[in-house]
Specification:
The structure holds two protein chains of two kinds. In chain A, 58% of the residues lie in helices and 7% in strands. Chain A is of the alpha+beta class. Chain A folds into two domains: 81 residues, Glutaredoxin, CATH 3.40.30; 156 residues, Glutathione S-transferase Yfyf (Class Pi), Chain A, domain 2, CATH 1.20.1050.10. Chain B starts with 11 loop residues before the first helix and ends with a helix. The chains are: A alpha+beta, B mainly alpha. Chain B: Pfam families: GST_C (PF00043), GST_N (PF02798).
Chain lengths: 240, 338
């Protein structure tokens, strides 16, 4: 059995892994895990990832969780072009710096924006107060501005003149609030131009394919009550 | 659903202040300052200017003495600092590796321990923002958001502890076990670091905030949040033990790695304020002993001095009140405690 990737394209990090693997023509079996149906909570999936999260990787007898770990594993194993994760110590450090920063900042803001704006009311049937939503969107605004001011600045890509893992992780994160109807690129021409460059570098067809699910998040049918009961505490913990 | 903090008002001034604080909380270094300068940067030459701070007693058993930096001509303002508070550093030394660290910070301690354990020569630039010691104008230019740890290697500036640790391990060719070259072994380190960012970082720092930092500025964190934090810590420790440690000697394999260092210093944070996380967790306690034996007690004692003393200092009211300009950031951090 070759490489298997357990993904749900609803999830930002899953999209980054999917695009990366496809773009670099890494052969893999896609193992869909439907988060909204609670499939990540099954005993079978726990064998792959006891943390019960996607993305997860299985390569023979080797299982691996955490999107950054998976991306770096694929980078090294399949010897992808250097620009994704440069050999140069300082250039590589820039990518590491972004990948570390984004966990508790952009990742968190984008996740909360999607859940507070769309998934809580539409999928879970739980209203969100205007105050909380405003706070979440304000935080998103600050984080996106930081992305532009501190990372992108006047460069073509986040860590230099070429696309890297940092850009892939960032763009897939930003598509989360876009899927929720937030205009993150509006009034940000530099960021919008960067978005176009990343999409062009990845390939528009692949980009569109990877984002079909998130762009339909607003149309998610309401959760089954038993599923909702299982998911609620985990969702609340996830977006703290 | 919990209500949002009342401070999310429509008042532009307070919004800007909050945005500035959020930026600092979330942000990263910038080679040039952000458009809106954050308040609270001390004027050079005041006694709170880092470069004129009275050197504190700090032991250096590993031979790397922490030094206050001296850059440019000293400002002669020190009517309250009768003796020179600055030691001169030879010009050549200022070209080497500089690490901007606050030993109250878990990731800073991890970086410091790593560098010292591996004999990496560096200049320690102590930054203690909450103790009322403002970073200097120089630090502000290096890191306009005053994040620690920050590394400065010539013109190269880097934030984020895991990035710094990986950079140091690569540049100084440290022993393989820290950041293994083997594909799968290295993947395990990154797997831990990813989970650490989500589940450990931010969670294990809370007790210091609830017990020491918040009271310093007159804020009481509700018991409900304290209990919730305990639940999150318990869950994280369970996952750490079962998924990451398992039957292994260390978190990402059979040898000490960057993962163990990051984990240990985070776990030490609540321990320092009296939460004995290791009680009733023999596997975790044994892991801790192994890592600490490897690192060496002298090095750990030296690095952990400030954090291990903080509770006693707080009880005896010996922790300086943070200056008003850092209060908004502190309040924001406190409000983010779930």
């Amino acid at each position: 059995m070759g490489l298997e990737l357990y993904l749900d394209l609803l999830s930002q990090p899953c999209r980054a892994v999917y695009i990366f693997a496809k773009k670099n023509r890494i052969p893999f079996e896609l193992r869909p895990v439907n988060l909204l149906k609670g499939q990540h909570l099954s005993d079978a999936f726990a064998q792959v990832n006891p943390l019960k999260k996607v993305p997860a990787l299985k390569d023979g007898d080797f299982t691996l969780a955490e999107s950054v770990a998976i991306l770096l594993y694929l980078t090294r194993k399949y010897k992808v072009p250097d620009h994704w994760y440069p050999q140069d110590v300082q250039a590589c450090a820039r990518v590491d710096e972004y990948l570390a920063w984004q966990h508790t900042t952009l990742r968190r803001s984008c996740l909360r924006a999607l859940w507070h704006k769309v998934m809580f009311p539409v999928f879970l049937g739980e209203p969100v107060s205007p105050e909380i939503l405003a706070a979440t969107l304000a935080e998103l605004d600050v984080t996106v501005q930081l992305l532009e001011d501190n990372f992108l600045q006047n460069k073509a890509f986040l860590t230099g003149p070429h696309i890297s893992l940092a850009d892939l992780v960032a763009i897939t994160e930003l598509m989360h609030p876009v899927g929720a109807g937030c205009q993150v690129f509006e009034g940000r021409p530099k960021l919008a131009a960067w978005h176009q460059r990343v999409e062009a570098a990845v390939g528009e067809d692949l980009f569109r394919e990877a984002h079909e699910v998130i762009l339909k998040a607003k149309d998610s049918p309401p959760a089954d009550p038993t599923v909702k009961q299982k998911l609620m505490p985990l969702v609340l913990a996830m977006i703290q | 659903m919990r209500g949002a903090p009342a401070r999310w008002s429509r008042n532009k001034a307070s919004c800007d202040c909050i945005k500035s604080c959020l930026s600092r909380l979330l942000g990263v270094e910038s080679p040039r300052p952000l458009r809106s300068r954050s308040p609270g940067v001390s004027k050079p030459g005041t006694c709170q200017d880092l470069w004129h701070r009275r050197p504190e007693k700090q032991a250096g058993p590993t031979g790397v003495e922490p030094e206050t930096l001296y850059l440019g001509a000293p400002q002669s303002c020190h009517s309250c600092c009768p003796e020179p508070a600055v030691r001169r550093v030879p010009a050549a030394a200022t070209m080497g590796l500089e690490l901007y660290l606050d030993m109250l910070s878990q990731p800073c301690r991890a970086v410091s321990i790593f560098a010292k354990k591996n004999g990496i020569p560096f200049k320690l630039c102590t930054t203690e923002v909450f103790k009322g010691q403002h970073p200097s104008k120089e630090f502000f230019q290096i890191n306009s958001l005053r994040r620690v740890p920050t590394l400065k290697d010539g013109d190269f500036i880097l934030t984020e502890s895991s990035a710094i640790l990986i950079y140091l391990s690569s540049k100084y060719q440290t022993a393989d076990h820290w950041y293994p070259s083997d594909l799968r072994a290295r993947a395990r380190v990154h797997e831990y670091l990813g989970w650490h960012a989500d589940c450990i970082r931010g969670t294990f720092g809370v007790p210091l905030w609830t017990q020491v930092m918040a009271p310093l500025i007159g804020v009481h964190v509700p018991e409900e949040k304290v209990q919730r934090n305990k639940t999150f810590m318990d869950l994280a420790l369970q996952q750490l033990e079962e998924k990451f440690l398992g039957d292994r000697a260390f978190v990402a394999g059979q040898q000490v790695s960057l993962a163990d260092l990051m984990a240990l210093e985070e776990l030490l944070q609540p321990v320092a304020v009296g939460c004995d996380l290791f009680e009733g967790r023999p596997r975790l306690a044994a892991w801790r002993e192994r890592v600490e034996a490897f690192l060496g007690s002298d090095l750990l004692q030296e690095t952990r001095g400030p954090i291990l003393n903080i509770l006693e200092q707080a009880v005896n009211k010996k922790v300086p009140t943070p200056p008003p300009e850092v209060h908004p950031c502190m309040l924001l951090r406190i409000s983010r405690i779930p």
